[in-house]
Write a structure and sequence with these properties.
Belongs to the GINS3/PSF3 family. By secondary structure, this protein is mainly alpha-helical. It contains nine helices and three strands, in the order αβαβαβαααααα. The model has no long low-confidence stretch (mean pLDDT 81).
Length: 149
């Protein structure tokens, strides 16, 4: 399996919270038997993104915005995207953000922030790559998996 396909697969495996609108047979395989009795209307559970997106699309559940795309992280990306530790927040940050935005059709402000932050971080990566005689490990540790490549 090629590296881009692995990154895409890992992005789809990221967990997100959903609010369940109705009982969904077989869901206990993903949420565990302990929560089986709570698999009812209005119950909030964490599921892999691919499953959450499918349930959301069929109006069986409502997918919440992932924690790493919440206001605090977006504001940090607006202020100084180069210093944000994306690897700690989500190792497949941009891959997952793209998948999320494709399913949720969020507002254009979020898209603009992500594009601008990706551009600025790419420029910083390029600049540091030219200075190969310096130690950049602190910076590299902050990059998501795609940026590290």
């Amino acid at each position: 399996m090629s590296e881009p396909k692995i990154q895409e697969l890992l992005a789809k495996e990221q967990k997100v919270f959903v609010t369940i609108y109705q009982i969904i047979p077989g869901l206990e395989k993903f949420i565990g038997r302990s929560q089986l009795n709570n698999n009812s209307n209005g119950h909030r559970v964490e599921l892999p993104f691919y499953l959450a997106a499918a349930l959301d699309k069929r109006n069986l559940a409502k997918m919440e915005r992932p924690k790493f795309l919440e206001v605090e992280i977006i504001n940090a990306l607006k202020v100084n995207p180069v210093n944000v530790n994306l690897h700690e927040i989500c190792p497949q940050f941009y891959s997952f953000a793209i998948k999320y935005l494709e399913t949720r059709h969020e507002n254009s402000e979020l898209v603009e922030v992500l594009v601008k932050s990706k551009r600025l971080r790419s420029l910083e990566i390029f600049d540091r790559a030219k200075r190969f005689d310096e130690d950049h490990m602190d910076f590299v540790d902050k990059l998501d998996e795609e940026e590290r490549k």
